[in-house]
Amino acid sequence: MILHIENVIDRGTLSVIRDKLAKAQFTSGLESAGWAAKQVKNNQQIRAPHPLIDLLHKRLEQHELVKVAARPANFVNVMINRYDQGQAYGTHMDDALMGDTRTDLSFTLGITPLSDYEGGELVIEDSSGERSWRLEQGDVLLYPTQFLHRVNPVSKGSRIAMVGWIESVLREPQQREMCLDLYTAMRQEFEQHGKTAQFDLLSKTYNNLLRRWAKR
Ligand SMILES: O=C(O)CCC(=O)C(=O)O
Ligand SMILES: [Fe+2]
């Protein structure tokens, strides 16, 4: 399950953040690339701890859909990256372990308005082919870290985003999808009909499934 979540961060906040980032010191993206990914990574980044990363990270962590869809146990390597004109990140796999943390999900949060750059698609490959996203400012793509993926060359302007990885209490993508679907059905039943007998059964099953699968 790949989720595109819109408007996770409001535009006012992002505009202030972009002003600050214009003056911030970025370092080479090679610092955090795995030994094979180094061959294809060409960008700049700011790594945590950093006040702007803290602020965005907190907002992301508090977002209801992020909480329910990802069930985060830990976040790791949250960083802000920038691809200037001509820069890209070729096809690669992200490391399964970053320090002690298992990477179950990856996310990208768009910071630059789409109209300010061209290219820079995030492309995810699977056996059926590939799919690409250009994320509007404030939008998040949340995806299992299991796919080969790349960032296409930026052909005009610069693309700034925040990326990072999540270790989930639900290790398997299918578990996360089933829990999210059940949760969604339970919420809809509650909103449409109130706390019915059906709601109680959905709630019972949802919570017992989550309890059965959750590992921390
Ligand atoms: O910037 C992105 O959207 C993804 C970057 C990426 O694949 C990575 O940093 O490993
Ligand atoms: Fe990656």
TrEMBL record:
<dbReference type="GO" id="GO:0006879">
    <property type="term" value="P:intracellular iron ion homeostasis"/>
</dbReference>
<dbReference type="InterPro" id="IPR006620">
    <property type="entry name" value="Pro_4_hyd_alph"/>
</dbReference>
<keyword id="KW-0408">Iron</keyword>
<dbReference type="Pfam" id="PF13640">
    <property type="entry name" value="2OG-FeII_Oxy_3"/>
</dbReference>
<dbReference type="InterPro" id="IPR044862">
    <property type="entry name" value="Pro_4_hyd_alph_FE2OG_OXY"/>
</dbReference>
<keyword id="KW-0479">Metal-binding</keyword>
<dbReference type="InterPro" id="IPR005123">
    <property type="entry name" value="Oxoglu/Fe-dep_dioxygenase_dom"/>
</dbReference>
<dbReference type="InterPro" id="IPR023550">
    <property type="entry name" value="PKHD_hydroxylase"/>
</dbReference>
<dbReference type="GO" id="GO:0006974">
    <property type="term" value="P:DNA damage response"/>
</dbReference>
<feature type="binding site">
    <location>
        <position position="92"/>
    </location>
    <ligand>
        <name>Fe cation</name>
    </ligand>
</feature>
<dbReference type="GO" id="GO:0005506">
    <property type="term" value="F:iron ion binding"/>
</dbReference>
<dbReference type="GO" id="GO:0016706">
    <property type="term" value="F:2-oxoglutarate-dependent dioxygenase activity"/>
</dbReference>
<feature type="binding site">
    <location>
        <position position="94"/>
    </location>
    <ligand>
        <name>Fe cation</name>
    </ligand>
</feature>
<protein>
    <submittedName>
        <fullName>Fe2+-dependent dioxygenase</fullName>
    </submittedName>
</protein>
<keyword id="KW-0847">Vitamin C</keyword>
<feature type="binding site">
    <location>
        <position position="159"/>
    </location>
    <ligand>
        <name>2-oxoglutarate</name>
    </ligand>
</feature>
<dbReference type="GO" id="GO:0031418">
    <property type="term" value="F:L-ascorbic acid binding"/>
</dbReference>
<keyword id="KW-0223">Dioxygenase</keyword>
<dbReference type="Pfam" id="PF18331">
    <property type="entry name" value="PKHD_C"/>
</dbReference>
<keyword id="KW-0560">Oxidoreductase</keyword>
<feature type="binding site">
    <location>
        <position position="149"/>
    </location>
    <ligand>
        <name>Fe cation</name>
    </ligand>
</feature>
<dbReference type="InterPro" id="IPR041097">
    <property type="entry name" value="PKHD_C"/>
</dbReference>
<feature type="domain" description="Fe2OG dioxygenase">
    <location>
        <begin position="72"/>
        <end position="168"/>
    </location>
</feature>
